[in-house]
Amino acid sequence: LSFRGLYEVFAKPTKFFAELAARPKILVPLIVLAVILLVMLFATRDLIYQSQVTSPQFQAQLQGRAITPEMEAQFKSRIVEFGAVTILLCSLIAALFALFWGNFVFAGKAGFKQLWSVMLYGEIVWGVGVLIGVPIHLARQNLVAPFSLGILAASKGLDSVLYVILARFDIFIIWEIIVIGIGLSAVYGLTRGRGLRLSLLSMGMCSVLLILFTIIGKLIF
């Protein structure tokens, strides 16, 4: 089931999540997602580095000091390591939001392992979109999300509030939310519509947090 889920989450998610609800799996999707993220971050680390060193926040931290080769190597290493961990934490946070909304607000009953399993397999969908986007990033030499409305606000900067908002309207993020909605409806025994609403409340809160952090960063710097 763990390995079948890697393709059945695309091909037949309803059948797969019905099985997953009874036998939640964590290790395989977690490892696969981690590998996807490490590949993506390693391939684009130079682009991420360039976007970071030119930001006002990074320049303020440098306080006029020059960047040594050792500092650059260390920073690129941290991009890969901390970037992967941070993104993986999103699935954990989304599962906690689903636990709150589903168990306490919707008065359903589901275990955290079931919910985290659904989130991890849902993020595999997003992860495939990330891998498809890597050669596009490298060809364009920028980090603009290629499958989102963020393209419309790219000129304002990738750290702009408008870009961050529009970048959430991404084909693979929308697909991920729909797939997670199917999974949550199977876990909680909800209708497809209520499962989708629960998915929006859970994954949507992660997007809201990202937007809030961007706004706070803008206000501070």
The proportion of strand residues reads under 5%
Number of helical regions: 9
Q: Give me the Rg, rounded.
A: 18 Å
Q: Which residues sit in consecutive blocks of at least 5 with pLDDT less than 50?
A: none
Taking the alpha carbons of the first and last residues, their distance comes to 48 Å
Overall mean confidence score, pLDDT: 86
Helix content: over 70%
Topology order in helix (H) and strand (E) letters = HHHHHHHHH
Shape: elongated
- Strand count, sense and closure of the main sheet? none
How many β-strand runs? Answer: 0
Structural class: mainly alpha
Describe the fold and architecture.
With 221 residues, this protein is an all-alpha fold. The chain contains nine helices and no strands. The radius of gyration is 18 Å and the shape is elongated. The model has no long low-confidence stretch (mean pLDDT 86).
Provide a brief overview of the structure.
Helices cover 77% and strands 0% of the residues.
Task: Give a quick set of tags describing it.
221 residues; mainly alpha; 0% strand; elongated
Annotate the secondary structure layout.
Layout: H1 5-11, H2 13-22, H3 27-53, H4 56-62, H5 69-105, H6 112-140, H7 161-167, H8 171-188, H9 192-220
